[in-house]
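Hi R.,

As promised, here are both runs. First protein below:
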Amino acid sequence: MHNIPFLATGARHGYTTTLGDLRNGLAIDLSHFKQFELDADAKTLTVGPGVTVGEVFDPLFNAGFDIQTGSAPCPSFIGVTLGGGVGRFQGVYGLLADALISVRLITADGEVLQVSRTSYPDLFWAIRGAGANFGVVTSATYSVHPLTNNGDMFLAEFLVPPRRWSEYFRIMESMSPLPAELSSLLLNSFNTTTNQTQLFAHWAYKGSETEARKHLSPILNMNLTTTQMRVLPWNKLVENTFAGAAVTVCEPNTNRNLYTLSMKNYSASTWEAVASKLATFYARYPHARSSSLLYEFFPNQAMSAITLEGTAFPRRDTTAYIIHTSETDNALARFGEEIRRDVAATSGYPEITTFVNYAHGDETLEQIYGKEKLPRLAALKKIWDPKEVFSFNNGLPTTYP
């Protein structure tokens, strides 16, 4: 045995600081594992770990299907799944992990297993929410969904000037809970053209324009500056979000520093205070103007319909996520930590909580995986990875507490 530490990598979209614990190790590059098999009769899709989220869109749509996905095109489709996989369609279809049927898994001792509800069910439970801890997935099979409304969605985006932030946040709060088909993103950033902090609002409705306008009437009645409002097919949603800004999070070899939080409560007063604080921060630290805050408002009806005990994913009552993105810098890091604390106070959870795929790396195990999940996860870790070979991506212990 050589005992060389390693990471299995797909699209290399991970951010957590725990990845830095790998020293003098190897990367097992799975990016060329591009298996893609769609069975239209069985309504299943099988992919390899090199297939990215964006590479799924067009083939599925062209075959008459869709699936719940993330909001960025560049992560590995399987990699997203192993953490649970949140996204704009989770109100209708649930998490990406909820679509998972089976995986081909290589364990720490080199055994190749077919893992599903009926084959190694405990391991199947664990990989849906904590999957990076239990092996290398070389293929995964999912359920896919026939298109509804011909695959069309309604998309609307608006600019919200500072003088109307308070009004917008109050309306957002009043719209909670969002209908299953309606999701929103809100980008709080610095506009170098206008030289001021702005809110850039995105709304997507999985259904007809008529129904979308009914649900969006409180926002439409604000008569905000509209940057786009149109019907488009679901496979074109990500590339048309915020004028293609999703591509910027896919640039390789870029230092990024994320502080994130999960929320189940909407709080207009908190968001307004955070936006004001961000504007002040931009004024004080001009070099910080490339940083941003992103709110993801994702409905959770289908996600929460699955029992909490059914998978390792810890929080199915979450309705929103906030992500502070910046370069590595001490002032920016302190600000990210401060924003995380501020939003946590009204999040509806008793402490900071985060989604494992979004974790910064400084959170506790309980904040990432949930205290109620950890005893079973640790017991399974002891069985399947007692030497903690898979330990660099928000790693689990083999005992708890």
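And here is the second one, sequence first, then its structure tokens:
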Amino acid sequence: MNTVFLGLGSNIYPKAGNLSSAIAGLSSLLNIISVSGVYKSRSLLLDAQPDYFNIVLKASTFIDPYQLLSFCKTIEKTMHRDTPYKWGPRNIDIDIVDFNKRVIESKTLFLPHKEFPGRNFVLLPLMEIEPEYAHPVNHISVEKMHNLLDNHSEIHRLGELKWR
């Protein structure tokens, strides 16, 4: 059995509904163990895009990381993720943050997700559901990764997501 952490985000209405729908789709192949609260953050590009709602979930699964990547892309497609340009607004974005502490660097998959240590919208929800998490490469705790960032004011916890 593999333990996985996924980061989900949406900045197209209904944001919370999109997150719940994605969890429902993911639960067909994943055993959802826990889901963080919803965090509101600004777009990374700081352009005129709407704010994002973000969560991190912990799950277990028998599928391998490449099957999980394909499955996440299928969920995104099913939910009509259609961004007109890279980093554009999206109704759902699903990233594999960690897969069983495995390290993979390939053309299609990079694990753990290479950008998550610099993203409070991943670190705070991850810290909420797995406070003892440490990066499998540099062994830095999720709390320390969060404390190394200086944009703490740009993310706010909104509350719990109804997902069951």
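A quick note on the second one: The chain has a mean pLDDT of 93. Let me know what you think.

Best,
J.
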